[in-house]
Design brief:
The protein has four helices and five strands. With 150 residues, the protein is of the alpha+beta class. Helix 2 packs antiparallel against helix 3 and helix 3 crosses helix 4.
């Protein structure tokens, strides 16, 4: 949130407000769809369209992450979450991709929600920086996703 460094709250940034509005639009659109199969198919199309809109490096990584997640855990349903690709089980987001460009960050992020079963001791990673999705990174993503839904 803006002003976090100075300690004075200045409200949400423009990017944060835009993400919240996009999330609300997505919820309204999903509520209007009729059958569960139609909702699932449209949600995946929404994710693919969002990925296609991304800048080159983010798009390439998001495409690879999408392919790895959907092949590793076919039970995870693609959906948009705050305007970014996410993957849910039983309607609850387990993992998500955040583009670097949208949030003006140095790297893209693969994140996991509290629904992911990655618990390990008293502390574990819930987000991973991505600068490139190599074959080694794909293996790590697949292993994390398998653990997250096991």
């Amino acid at each position: 949130m803006a002003g976090a460094d100075s300690g004075a709250y200045e409200g949400f940034t423009a990017e944060e407000r835009a993400a919240m509005k996009e999330h609300a639009r997505g919820l309204k659109t999903a509520a209007r769809r009729s059958s569960p199969a139609e909702k699932a198919a449209q949600a995946e199309q929404d994710v693919l369209a969002k990925i296609a809109e991304m800048q080159d490096s983010d798009r390439i990584m998001a495409e690879r992450v999408h392919a790895v997640i959907t092949s590793t855990a076919p039970d995870l349903a693609p959906k948009l979450w705050y305007g970014m690709p996410a993957y849910a089980l039983g309607g609850k987001v387990v993992c998500f991709f955040q583009s670097a460009e949208k949030f003006k960050s140095r790297y893209a992020t693969l994140g996991f929600s509290d629904q992911a079963k990655l618990d390990e001791g008293t502390m574990w990673a819930a987000g991973f920086a991505l600068t490139e999705v190599t074959p080694e990174a794909e293996e790590q993503i697949a292993a994390l996703v398998k653990r997250a839904v096991s």
